Amino acid sequence: MPEKLTSRNLLNQLQTRHYTNAYAAKIKGQLVGWATSIFPQEFCETMDLTVVYPENHAAAVAAKRGALPLLEQAESEGYSMDLCSYARINLAYMKSQAAEIPIPLPDFILCCNNICNTLIKWYENIAAELNIPMILIDVPYNHGYEPTPAAIDYIKSEFGECIRQLEKITGRPFNHEGFRKVMILSNENSRAWKRVLDLNQAVPAPLNGFELFNYMSQMVCARGRQETGELLKLLIEELEEKIKLGKSCYEDGEKCRVMWDGIACWPHIKHNFKAFAKNGINIVCSSYPEAWVLLYEPGNLDELAKVYSMIGNNTCMEYQADKREREVKNFKLDGILFHVNRSCKVMDFMQYEQQRLVAARTGVSIMNFDGDQADPRNFAAAQFETRLEALKEIVAHHKSAKKSKEVTNNDPA
Amino acid sequence: MITAGVDIGSTSSKVVVLAEGEKILNKVIIPVGAGSSGPARAFEQSIREVNLSREDIKRVIATGYGRNTFTGADQQITEITCHARGVYELVPGVKTIIDIGGQDAKAIGIGKGGTVSNLIMNDKCAAGTGRFLEVMSRILEINIEDLADLAALAKNEISISNTCTVFAESEVISQLSTGTSREDVAAGIVQSVVGRVAGLVKRIGVQCEVVMTGGVCLNWMIIKVMEKELAVPVIASPMAQLTGALGAALLAFESAS
Ligand code: SF4
User: Fold this and answer.
1) Is the per-residue pLDDT at B170 higher than 60?
2) Fewer beta carbons within 10 angstroms: which end of chain B, N or C?
């Protein structure tokens, strides 16, 4: 009897296929693009273009412990160690193509700076080195709670320009009916992804955060595709079944529920997972996978512009604090672990104030650790373990203090 | 009931043996830490000196960076919780703890009953830690304990602009080679550490009583400069580097009772 297909197997198949298909397309002489991780994929999906995502690729390389040679190569070519490690890995890969998981070199670049401005220079550099066209969707930072009407108009005008450039690059007209269909499908997938994330509000949570990071890669690479919907449907069924059975993702149960704030620490992901599991701490939610929930009314370009503008890093303090506050409540969090990520300055700069705001509003326990999303050199296991254990101890104290207060309050004497 | 706390830091091992959670039977400090024979020797010495054997000790808690490698313990608890418990015992009014350890510096906010309500640790590097002081004392060719007395004689304290320990090391060497006095350099070193750590304390909010623990609190100059920087009195923990081990022994007593 054939083994039942699990969502984990399907994810592996889809991710492998994503990279092999890209290579096959290149060999067949088709155009291949490189895109930033939260580029409005609706446009290239409509044109049925093959696109790979260097940030996702760099993360996969780092998780397979292949980052160091590429980082050293980039540094020997003159790129500063202070530069984002995803950028260093990718800029080195562009030259040497030396990685266990290969991706084809691009024929065009799709760049949207809705997560940081490092991306612009990084991708401009690729476009210049390889002498290929680059489409830029420049998204202004949201100093207010939402994008201004002027910002929306500006982004929409860039959408128009993006379509014109894509038509020029491919020599084919943009299919507006197809565009609508892609938007509908992308929203269905985003809704399903949100459902996956929300199912982890259950106590105990059915999924651990490290698995969330893995499933997330499908939303990065193919959130406008049919097969992503199939994967998410299967995953939702599995999670609902686990919830029905009251099953925790840890055998010994879930002792502490936390949010992982920031990007995963890919080179040390196995170590991180073990340290969490050993302490019975579960990452039930994270700001990271949540970034790929992109919901809007299909066909409404104002909303499309708005949703791509309101990505975590591109939003103001208040908006981010409100979001975290909601998550602390909805996911019944005991604590938040902030990854102070040497690579991602834009994220780090906001973290301290976020910590202060969220702790003041919710009383949730907060801890930091130093790391890097893809540079294995910027992480100390002992420091990480101490901070994780300290978080667990603080949470345990708070819980027992709360319990004894409840007992005192209920004591009829 | 007899319990023990073993605090294994990066440069020293400390043990406190406690009777009934109240009376200190023995305390031992050995100047070698995690990864050496220090922790086992310190523990062995601490019980032997008071004619006890391992069987007499009801519960042992290990803390500090080397806590997970000490096989003689019944439980491991981080130094954060142990310092908080130890200081709370010694100074019950404590609201803020400053702990400058060998590898990191911490500011700990203390809530009701001596529990940790808030915690901030240094980021990224050794600046503001005991290691920084150690490296600098070596350049000045003095024992770390003598740094305070030397700094007190400064006439024109220098400012050390590098936070990175390695860069600060070359900055200090170049200051010395251009004729800056050792006293002025020593005062600059103290100011540099205090400046970094005071930043952490201010982030969690300075609340009295402020208590400093760990070996660094024996440096009276650091306490004095810290008081100036925070504009509040700073109390040196009466048990200095033994505070964490005391906390561990107390927690061992409480969990075994
Ligand atoms: S990790 Fe941060 S700096 Fe690097 S590309 Fe992503 S958002 Fe930009």
Assistant:
1) yes
2) C
